[in-house]
C-alpha cells in the first residue's frame, strides 16, 4: 500500500534525445508520467511536420517497448524565418506547443532566436492555431546568474504584443520570475523543475564541483528556491511540473554540457519538497492537474503511488550520472 496515491502525473518539459539512447530515457519517463511534452532540441531540430511525425513514432515505439501506457505531447522548435505555413503545418501534425530558444542559451540552440521581433509572424500564427508558446527565458548575453531576470522584459513584450497567445515560461529559477508570472494575465503559466525546487547552487559547487547539478537556468540561492517552493505549493493553477530532465553521457558532461538527468528521481524529490512545506495535499494539483488544464488535455486516469520507502540513487543510470546520485531519498514512486 502506497502512503500517498495521486492521479498519474504529466511532465510538461522533458528531453528524450534521439537514436539509441532514447529508449532508456523514454522508459524512465513513462514509468512515472502518463504524458510528457517532448522537447525539440534534437539534431536536426523538430521544426517540420515530417520530423514531428517521425519523432512521435520513435517515442511511441519506445513507450510500447517499455510496456507502459503513456503518450508524448509534441512540441516544435520555433526557428527564425520558418514562416506561418510551417507553424500551421506543425499544428496540423499534432503539435500542442512551439519552443522559443534564445540563440545560444542552451544545448543545441545556436539556430535559436537572436531577435524576438524576427518571429513576430510566427507567434501570430501560433496564436491563430491555438498553440502554446513554450519559452526558455534566459538572455545568454547576461551574466550566468542574471540571465532569467534579464529575459523577463522580452516575455513581457510578447505578452503585450500577442494578446491571445498562451505562454509557458519554462523551468523558473528565480523569485523575480515567479513575481513576473503572477503579474501577467492567466494565459501565461510556468513550469518548475524538481531540481530547482529541491536544490541550490551550493549543491552544485558549494563543496566540490558536481556537474550532474549543472543545468540551464543555473540553480540559484536559498531565497530563490524558497520562492519557487512557495509558488509550487500555494495552490495556484499557474504553476505546474516540467522536469527539464536533460541527460548527457559522461563525455558530454566532461565537455561542459548543461542538463540534469532528473526523470528517475523527480517524483521522489517532489514528494519530499511538498512534505517539507507541509503541503503534500497539493502535490497532485502541481504534477497531475494544473498543466493538463493549461494545455487543454483531460486528466490522466492512471494512478501513481508514493511510499515512504527510502532508496539510494545509484551513481549511474542509463549510462548517465542521474541527479541526486548517491543521495538517500525518502520517497519511492511507482505506478499502481
Ligand atoms: C537542456 C538540454 O540539455 O537539452 N539543458 C538544460 O540545462 N536544461 C536544454 C534546456 O532546456 O535548457
Ligand atoms: Zn529543457
List keywords for this structure.
alpha/beta, TIM Barrel, eight-stranded parallel sheet, 12 helices, 37% helix, binds N-carbamoyl-L-aspartate
Would you write up a description of this structure?
The protein has an 8-stranded parallel sheet with strand order 2-3-4-5-6-7-8-9, sandwiched between helices. The protein has a 3-stranded antiparallel sheet with strand order 1-10-13, covered by helices on one side. Strands 11-12 form a two-stranded antiparallel ribbon. The mean pLDDT is 98. α1 (22-32) links the parallel β2 (10-14) and β3 (35-38). It has 12 helices and 13 strands. α1 (22-32) crosses α2 (49-66) and α3 runs parallel beside α4. The protein has a single domain (9-301), classed as Alpha-Beta Barrel (TIM Barrel). The protein has 336 residues and is an alpha/beta fold. Zinc ion (ZN) is lined by residues 13, 15, 39, 244, 246.
In short:
The protein is of the alpha/beta class. 37% of the residues lie in helices and 16% in strands. The protein has an eight-stranded parallel β-sheet, sandwiched between helices. A three-stranded antiparallel β-sheet has the order 1-10-13, covered by helices on one side.
CATH fold-level assignment: TIM Barrel
The hetero molecules present are: N-carbamoyl-L-aspartate, zinc ion
What percentage of amino acids are in beta strands? 15-25%
Superfamily (CATH H level) name: Metal-dependent hydrolases
How many distinct folded domains? 1
Number of helical regions: 12
Q: Sketch the topology as an H/E string, one letter per element.
A: EEHEHEHEHEHEHEHHHEHHHEEEE
Overall structural class, as computed from helix and strand content, comes to alpha/beta
- Uncertain runs are none
- Termini separation comes to 9 Å
Level-1 CATH class name: Alpha Beta
